[in-house]
Description:
Layout: H1 3-21, H2 25-35, E1 56-65, E2 74-75, H3 86-89, H4 95-111, H5 146-156, E3 164-175, E4 180-186, E5 190-191
Antiparallel strand pairs: 1-2, 1-3, 3-4, 3-5
Helix pairs in contact: 4-5
Amino acid sequence: MTPLQSVVLAFLGAWVGATVGNATRIGASALSQRLGPLYAIVPKWNFFSPHPGQHDYVLLYRDRRTDGSLSAWRSVDKLSQSAPPAIVRWVWNPSMYRSKALFDLTQGLTSAFDNDEQRADSETEATAATPPEPRRVDLGQVKFSTMYLTLLQLVTAQEHSPLGESTQFAVMQYSRATDGHELVFASEFHSLDD
């Protein structure tokens, strides 16, 4: 075996080990602390055991108008299009990709937080149309991450109030099984000026 093959084999072995470790909460926490921003490249597949995905996300946004008032929260339409009928969904489900993209972006973004104290208070249940007022958090370097900037781009591409000067987005987690919603993340306000 050549030295290059040994290096590649060691890298792939470490990658598989990190992926397996990332499937547990303890392993994910340890990897996040040790790898820092590089943690985002470690896959996390929760389709099956030990922690299958049991919830979905919805991306909301609101505008702050020039007079300081806030618009109502609105859902990003491109991500919340209805799925096809259940009888064909297992074969043809284009909305699955949008839902999976939001899921992956949110998982990557929330894994970048140092700990649960930096998340907005999620104890208060709310509906997707009226999430609770988020607690302000110091986003640090998270707001420069690819995940955060992608969500911001999705939100700024939406139709906004003509009097809107800035926008804020939030991600709500919901479960169809429990019909419960909780706030996962809320951004700062960002200017709508071109």
